[in-house]
User: What shape does this take?
Amino acid sequence: MITVEQALDYVSESARPLAPTQVKLGAALGLRLQESIVSPIDSPPFDKALLDGYAVIANDDAPTRDVIEQVIAGGVPHRAVVPGATINVMTGAPLPDGADAIVKHEDVTLVDEQTIQMPAAGVAADTGILRRGAAFHNGQEVLSAGRYLSAIDLALLAEVGRAEVTVTPRPRVAVLSTGNELVECGQPVGPGQICNSNGPMLLALLESARASTMDLGIGPDEPNELRRLMQQGLQADVLLATGGVSAGVMDLVPGVLQDLGVRQVFHKVRMKPGKPVWFGELEQDGRRTLVLGMPGNPVSTLVSFEVFVKPMLKVLAGGEFEPPQPLRASLTTNIGHRGKRPTYYPSRIDFGTRKEGLPTVETLAWRGSADLAALTRANALTILPAGDYQYEPGTEVDVLTLS
Ligand code: AMP
Ligand code: MG
Assistant: This one.
């Protein structure tokens, strides 16, 4: 049986970044930019009023000024400011010709409807104005390729008039929960049946990982129907199936996948939970689909997602492969371990309470891979190495944080 590290090497060999495509701004949040954005405009595009007030000539000595025009944002001045005159401008309006300062509305006194009294201190040139091109110039690179687009980046793209950008798209991930015992949450649960909890969990994990999802619902332990559903799933970039990958008589998933031409890369990894995990790839129509068959117990599914799916999605989304990065933490509990497989143990890490500079971590009461309830308190998985031993509080351990 291969180790987690070997399995991750295989995943990194199989995962390829998706081809860049154009997407609309509204769909670009969090995606990796694959072009350099050069502004076709100056920003601001004209000398611009930064406040509501009066455009004046700064070194004009006249104590009062005649208001000759009013310009709102979106409008343009039709007259020029000359000595003794002023134009009333609103924030965002273009600076009228002749003017070189804006006096704040609150700093002037209205003599009458057409005349203002200047503040005693006067006004310095350039006050209240953002000059054309002060933020950036036409021809200047404003965003470089490779960054993950934030909300602010999207605003900047909009400012320079880019309605679409070239990015690595979101990976499309199909989710299929297999098992004769499963019913969709909300449906009547008969004897021997349970609700499908993996489906909603995976769809939510994928949502937070910025993948786009294809929900294939529940597949029975029956080869023809599984084949039909998996064929649909193979249209996606990744197919995640849960259940049916162990050694039981109804564990049909690997066989059906291989019938569909999916090449097995590995089956079974030395880890707990998650041992029966199956990984394969299919090349068709110049596209590659990666397939992960995860054991059906919800905690196994979660651990397989954290360990294998997240790094895989990062590569598909245009990033560099990075295996899960554990942190060092100081154990606060007694925990025993037995067996040849490292265990990913539901835990609670506390960054506020430190011991010798390390965050502390508590292993939680847990009844194994079917015990999802214990996981609701967990924010991390302690990685207990293979072997038979007892850890005391104060032991330094590796911990994977959960998102
Ligand atoms: P399997 O991997 O198919 O052998 O399933 C292992 C265990 O996980 C069994 O107890 C299943 O009933 C349970 N299980 C499988 N799929 C799901 C699911 N989607 N939601 C909740 N439990 C599941
Ligand atoms: Mg099953």
Q: What stands out?
A: The two ends are 29 Å apart (CA to CA).
